[in-house]
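Q: A reviewer asked whether we had any structural model of the full assembly, not just the individual parts. We don't, so I'm hoping you can provide one. Inputs are below.
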Amino acid sequence: MRTHYCGTIRTEQIGETVTLCGWIDRRRDLGGVIFLHLRDRSGSVQFVSDPVRTPDSYHLAETLRSEYVVKITGKVYRRPEESLNARIPTGEIEIYAEQIEVLNRVQKQLPFQVSASEDETSVREDLRLKYRYLDLRRERMSANLHLRHQVIKTIRRFLEDKFNFIEIETPILTRSTPEGARDFILPSRVNLGEWFALPQSPQLFKQLLMVSGFDRYYQIARCFRDEDLRADRQPEFTQLDMEMSFMDQEEIMDLNEELICQIFKEIKHVEIPRPFPRLAYAEAMDNYGCDKPDTRFDLKLVNVSDLFKDSQFKVFSGAIASGGIVKILPISGGNQTISNVRIKPGGNLFKEATEAGAKGLAYIRVLENNEIDTIGAIKDSLTPESKQQLLTLTGAKPGDLLLFGAGDAAMVNKTLDRLRLVIGRELGLINDEQVNLLWVTDFPMFEWNADEKRLEAIHHPFTAPHPDDLSDLTTARAQAYDIVYNGTEVGGGSVRIHQREIQEQVFTAIGLSSEEAHDKFGFLLEAFDYGTPPHGGIAYGIDRLVMLLAGEESIRDVIAFPKTQQARCPLTNAPASVDAKQLKDLEVVSTYKPKAE
RNA sequence: GGGACUGUAGCUCAGUUGGUUAGAGCGCGCGCCUGUCACGCGCGAGGUCGCGGGUUCGAGUCCCGUCAGUCCCGCCA
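A: Here is a predicted structure for the entire assembly that you could use as a starting point for your response.
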């Protein structure tokens, strides 16, 4: 039907007669000459029609409108010198529209303009999602989906051709597991009263594939979690899931660095230096207050607990006495860039701090001659020696601002992490062009869940403890690693447990009874008895990775048909009710009562 | 489950202290225009101000409720 894609025509095709199909992007009717831009997924190209050069098509060209689907045949010409358009790849040529065939018309006014325009106005997202098929015709969305495809293609080529990985599909209908997010569940008709769950990840199946000897497995896997949505969270999302046998943590990380470098080389055309920097979890928490620090800018936290443990200032000494810490976020030149209004109640930094759980936001301003400006209670509590120590520890110089966090460690870290990011962004310390990749390693195995009064796996309960820490699992480090890209966790993995006794110990540590462990994971424990190789793996959030590569702020913009924040699809109106018969076949009754009508 | 913001023409938005006939740009329709590229110029159509209720002589504007969307907290191993 056609000979080329619209966006591919270049000066090499001058003199050729081509046939193109696509959508009318724009029509400019100058009275005696009509310019048409025809668009397909490759881009657009200009056609010309006038009564002299293209007498057969001119009257039809007058009737064309935006988004009509047409097939046009004509000869490619070099544009007149004064009409060259350097802003589009096809701007050196144009095609005389000798024959036009209308393949389909637009019958209604379009809900929004498809053709890219230079103004920055953006269409409401609910409308874009309702007419997603039109939205995806637009340049930005089309580019995002093409980019996503390129990323996945690069991954497949790299893993398959260079490292002998094979892709294996794992079940979508599986069983519900404890731990982790809420499962989506489906009633089984054949086995009434029993339920399938959609997988949160292919974790157990990929480990079993290692038992089977597949050695190097990957999958572009759809995963499901029935939790509330965010800009970077959808109920169904796509993971690059990998698992490898006979490789230790270093080897796995090494292979993955090469993969990441390949992606950045293909997509961004940049070479990322290797090895990637590594930060132990404890170090990340000390210096940045979080386990996925944005290390594109420096601002590091300083622990000053020792300095204040005997302080007269009870807010600080009291926090330490009850097991907490006091930390400082020093901001170089902060006296000038951050006003007191912002730090005091009502200010945006105060608000950030209290949202993170802080009761207030204490500060010190370092003045000329290293005098300090702060509230009296803090000033009075500092001896000249402790003041000097404070300045030395934080490296503070005249003009610097010190922001305090005091209380339990988790809250202090959360508070100062948030402040660090807000201030880093505001002060322009982040270079958007910079690509910063970082491994965070040596996570603890467990963390205390105060609500459920039990230990919880930080990664997941199949993660292997560090071999040096086997004597006490509750405080052991895990052989787990996260990959952080400019402050966002894009992937995480671990070496897995491959010995039954250790797996049972971990289940015990997280409070899973022996019966429960055997009911839910008996098949895994049994598999360990039949020759399980040492193995490990990693999973990447493809949506998140592509979002960052595309420079988008929402993963919805790199997913063809995403859900809204209320987990609905405005295009299909899913979810929806089902026939009474369907429910009856499943022996399912809804107890839901709609709110009073 | 909680907090914040948004909803006015097909789209993006403005709309003063509550006051006459609710505006603009783009899009759409018609006309003019032979080198445009966000073409230009002219004319025109197009509105249940998300929905329901209330206050008021009078509501796009104030109040209550509700629906939808976005962001965040909780939640997300």
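A: Points you may want to mention in the reply: Residues 326 and 406 of chain A are 4 Å apart (CA to CA). Chain A has 19 helices and 23 strands.
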